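User: Can you predict the 3D structure for this chain?
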Amino acid sequence: MKWIKHAVLYGIVIIVLFSGQFLFNRGLVSGVPPQLPEQTIAGLPTESVMPKEGGIIYFWADWCGLCSMMQSSMTKVLQDTPGITVALNSGPTEQVNRYLASRNLNWPTVNDADGSIAKRYGIKGVPAIFFLNKNGHIVFSSIGYSTEFGLRFRVWLASYFN
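Assistant: Here is the predicted structure, written as structure tokens:
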């Protein structure tokens, strides 16, 4: 009888978590990603680092505690997965560069100092992650913390969607 109570409790927790993700992810863009600025803050053409055949677009902020907790996982994933990051409302480009350098984050990054890029993507909070398929289209998105395994699993899963 005790196991039934645990099963019901776990079932309720899972439903609440998935419902929360659904509510947070509502309104996020899917399909063809909206245009990003032409250059990263390092001066690279965005087109050269933008995932074209699967990958990640990651929105973060220097003031975001969850984003800080994900830095190690995201760095590991971006070492072998195409991706670009977007610094949201984190100040002028010089400030974003200092932040990245102080944490040894060698991420291809564009600066969204005024939140206009995030608005085009439908973002209501950070961290926000968009997973692209082999055609470069957004097939999954999430807002909130994700583990390295969670990131890698969704990158892998996205590769099977057209």
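DSSP finds six helices and five strands in the chain. The chain has one domain: 2-158.
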